[in-house]
TrEMBL record:
The keyword Transmembrane applies. This is Anoctamin. Belongs to the anoctamin family. Residues 29-52 are annotated as: Disordered. Residues 14-251 form the Anoctamin dimerisation domain. It is found in: Cell membrane; Membrane. Its main location: membrane. Residues 254-362, 377-723 form the Anoctamin transmembrane domain.
Amino acid sequence: MLYISYSVYGCVSDYVLVWEIKSRRKRRARGKGRGEAEDEEELQAAQEESRSEKRKAQLARWRDRFIQNIQSAGLLLEKVHAKKTIHYLKLSAPWDVLVYYAEELCLRAPLQAQPHPDFNTSARVLQKLWVPNVMADFVPNRPVDYYTCAFRKSKMEKFLGSEDHQNYFSITQRHRIVYEILARTVYGKRKHAEVGAARLLNEGAFKAAFPLHEGPFELPDYEISPDQLNKRQILYHYWARWSKWYKYQPLDHIREYFGEKIALYFAWLGFYTAWLLPAAIVGTFVFVSGIMTMGSNTPAKEICESGGHYLMCPLCETCKPWNMSDICPMAQVGYLFDHPGTVFFSVFMSFWAVTFLEYWKQLSPESLDLSVMMYETGSSAGNIANISSSMVNLALILLMGQVYTALAEQLTKWEMHRTQTQYEDAFTFKVFIFQFVNFYSSPFYVAFFKGRFVGYPGHYGTLFGMRNEDCGPGGCLIELAEQLFIIMIGKQLINNVQEFVIPKVKAWRQKKALASVKKAQGGLEPQRWEQDYELVACEGLFDEYLEIVLQFGFITIFVAAFPLAPLFALLNNWAEVRLDAHKFVCEYRRPVAERAQNIGVWFIILEALSHVSVIVNAFLIAFTSDFLPRLLYRYKFNSDLHGYVNFTLAYAPPSYNYSSHGMCRYKAFRDENGSYTLVYWELLAVRLGFIIAFEHVVFSVLRVIDWMVPDVPESLELKVKRERYLAKQALADNQEALLVSDSFNPKAQRSYCRQ
């Protein structure tokens, strides 16, 4: 080899690089009587093998130079191999390297321990009400929280624990420093961007690069004190198990083990799940109230008792006329999704969405920087056809989702962003736009376009010679509810099955591939780095965020048509938290801890969705629901809605020749000549007025909520001021006080770090 191997025996291994070298296959000896075809095949195989050997030699040179350079950067190395097939290189950063990069990366250094708050919001409320808090759980070895400032080598003695070189830097900080060294190290020509371990992983020079887990997650067979469990065992026993579904998440422990970025995701998911509870309760109440008041639905009674009184015009060119009474069951079920309670629920969810985001904006700095938050958190045939088409649509949506993600990744690469943050934000935005169109286009079509351009008997609208599609006999709203149910619930079930099955299948394939190596080792107990190599590489948080953000769109944008959406979202998220926790603790290799100020561009997307939902629900109530036509009829004609069905039906023009069945009816506000009646224009004015009033009232109240809820809570401001004061005392002079990194001004920190 081109490098000298240093042993890190007795030191903590911060990182592991893995590569495999497979033995060269023996070529067959040339025998007699071989044909020209076989000789040609042998020649092609030899040429391919030659190219493969050259590629392997190139990768080996890159790998050797890379290892030489990381050794020159100061890392300590220890090489381990298993039967000369799989090679492990354990890396460790000595004290001098840690100190140098801690200052360069502006890592946080402890100044003074701060007390933990005893209760979170829900715990305080339950305590005041004298209600036992079943969600509370004692989790051992809670990490100490500190007031901190940016690390400075010249002021080392001012920081707590600086004399303990072995334990001063946390494990996650050590991982971050080694990761930065690996990301900066050159292995080829810098002008060709031949830099970093990530590029070598893509090229195939290394099979894996990961920090080590801190021991097994399984609890020992013998009895052990909770304080003696390792950090991974604590996370598994008190967080990742299904029996802990109703307990608070141990966010302090998650942040200590996985870093701020992953802890922030679980804090946000738990907070969102907790806020879904009131939305689910109200939505379920609205749905149940629809069931309870179904008997008072006068229009449905009129439809069911009409018999052959209302002969309806055919819904397609080859269809026959039908009686309004045929859709009696659909009219009764449709009331569950179209009654005054759904209008109230739309307004409620508009306020809920923005209030949720305002309170998250306030609490996210606390959960990240000071860890003071813990949350857990015929008509029958047509109906079957609609459900079947929705299921086919779901399959196409999931298939196209993969295509759109790949397209967004390629487009973002072509843009050549300067920083990783810019790349991730651009990629996230593109994927969301593609997936927004992918998932929401069919509900938008059913809600606002289907049945709008049909025309009227004798003058039906056409597209490419085909009659425009009309809504089913039960109306478009019930079709929209069916679409939302199938797409949302189906997507959630498929995603959960994938999250449960795919990591296990990948881990099984990895273990199967390494079975021969383990067999060659005999009965030796596998080492920690060998066990971690059998795990699945962590795939990050992008898919997790995307799944929940799309769910947020379903429960806000079309909630007027599907009041049970928050309930299904709540049930899904209770499972989602445990599935994700189990993946990170038990099935994934340990990811590198990353710092984060917030959930990034996802918050901007959530804000956009919450505002879009107000507009969409206003149009949904105004143009798709029967709420406003019923309201107008109550005001002008009959408060009990008697005769409402006849009021909504028009007669086909006399020129529409259907003599064998007589004059038929269709749903519209037109006269016998097909022209719009005065009622149509009155109703249009009411609809437009409702939209303007709805969005003005909602947005005005939202501005008041935004003004009332401060972005930074007073308690956090006091802690930030306390941290600044301690930093000034420790660093002594004004210039060094600039090292204080304001948690709410990351630009200031970055500007100092560039100096």
